[in-house]
């Protein structure tokens, strides 16, 4: 769903498409809830190509970090647009120089944004992704996390990016990644979205398990189940959950619903699916195939396991979760 269905983000998206950035600038300037600022920057910088209004905005506000943050975030995405999302072996040779050049440019913009606003952790959190693409190594990945953490202890986007940054596939180790997730969750208060990093780390461990019996058994381990369930109780299931009902909650709930499915915790899976409603995310369902198709298959499977019959029609399922009929998104798999 575009901009995760957030109406304000959709309105800004339409304005930016017309080259109108001033209202969005003022909104970002007033938004000092950092996870929320990160959400709007991340969602609205997902624009194909290089829109002219980005350079116009930077030129018009030379003393502001915001247009540089936005252009840096877009530049990061633009680099991956050149590279493609596949494994390195699938990337065309002539794409690598362009990928690298765009990442370097994005890194410069993000560094300037960080220098211009010493409060905001967002440029450092965004630059962690750039550091991975540029293969700058684990010490630099950690330095950038530490800078975000210094500005906003346990900043949500930085913690999420550190899971990928510390993983074995990016030059770290899965043991270090899981250790980081446990420490971050241990320090985070009840209701914090940061607890999600435990689930994310276990998804990475599951992906890295040998395919076949070992991978199928990973989330059935009692130790893994207990750790993921504890993280869920302290985040999405907590009465103090800070993101409840907002667009920021959909990624959290999708991650835990995915884990619950692999754990065969069908009642917990369906509860999260009702709360997700039409907001089905690509991640992490794409690890098993086409996201919406797999989501619907898992919904049907959970109903069959719990109730011995097929799941109700999509709109009936949404209505049971309190979602209005119509305008709430097509059924997964359509």
Order of helices and strands: HHHHHHHHHHHHHHHHH
The level of helicity is 55-70%
* CATH architectural name of the domain at 1-83 and 95-163: Alpha Horseshoe
Major β-sheet profile? none
Give the uncertain stretches in residue-range form.
325-331
Query: What is the residue-averaged pLDDT?
Result: 94
CATH top level label of the domain at 1-83 and 95-163: Mainly Alpha
Number of DSSP helical runs: 17
Q: Based on helices, strands and strand pairing, what is the structural class?
A: mainly alpha
Q: Which strand-content bin applies to the residues?
A: under 5%
Would you count the extended β strands for me? 0
C-alpha geometry: globular
CATH topology (fold) name of the domain at 1-83 and 95-163: Serine Threonine Protein Phosphatase 5, Tetratricopeptide repeat
Draw up the topology in text.
Blueprint (H helix, E strand, L loop, with lengths): L6 H11 L4 H9 L3 H11 L7 H9 L5 H18 L11 H22 L5 H12 L4 H14 L4 H11 L7 H14 L8 H13 L4 H6 L3 H13 L14 H14 L3 H11 L14 H17 L6 H7 L14
């Amino acid at each position: 769903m575009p901009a995760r269905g957030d109406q304000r983000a959709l309105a800004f998206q339409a304005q930016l498409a017309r080259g109108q950035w001033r209202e969005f600038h003022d909104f970002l300037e007033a938004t000092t809830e950092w996870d929320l600022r990160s959400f709007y920057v991340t969602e609205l910088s997902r624009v194909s190509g290089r829109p002219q209004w980005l350079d116009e905005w930077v030129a018009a506000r030379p003393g502001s970090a915001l247009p540089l943050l936005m252009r840096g975030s877009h530049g990061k995405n633009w680099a991956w647009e050149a590279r493609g999302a596949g494994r390195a072996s699938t990337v065309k040779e002539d794409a690598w120089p362009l990928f690298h050049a765009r990442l370097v440019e994005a890194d410069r913009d993000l560094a300037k944004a960080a220098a211009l606003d010493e409060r905001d952790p967002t440029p450092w959190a965004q630059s962690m992704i750039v550091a991975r693409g540029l293969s700058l190594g684990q010490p630099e990945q950690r330095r950038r996390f530490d800078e975000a953490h210094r500005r906003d202890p346990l900043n949500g986007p930085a913690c999420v990016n550190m899971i990928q940054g510390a993983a074995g596939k990016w030059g770290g180790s899965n043991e270090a990644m899981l250790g980081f997730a446990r420490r971050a969750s241990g320090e985070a208060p009840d209701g914090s979205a940061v607890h999600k990093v435990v689930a994310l780390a276990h998804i990475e461990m599951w992906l890295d398990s040998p395919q076949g019996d070992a991978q199928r058994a990973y989330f059935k381990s009692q130790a893994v189940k207990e750790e993921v369930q504890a993280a869920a109780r302290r985040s999405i299931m907590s009465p103090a959950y800070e993101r409840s009902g907002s667009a920021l909650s959909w990624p959290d709930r999708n991650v835990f619903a995915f884990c619950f499915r692999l754990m065969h915790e069908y009642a917990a899976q369906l509860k999260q699916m009702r709360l997700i409603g039409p907001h089905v995310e690509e991640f992490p369902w794409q690890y098993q195939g086409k996201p919406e198709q797999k989501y619907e298959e898992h919904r049907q499977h959970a109903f069959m396991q719990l109730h011995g019959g097929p799941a109700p029609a999509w709109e009936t399922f949404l209505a049971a979760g309190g979602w209005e009929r119509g305008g709430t998104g097509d059924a997964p798999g359509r």
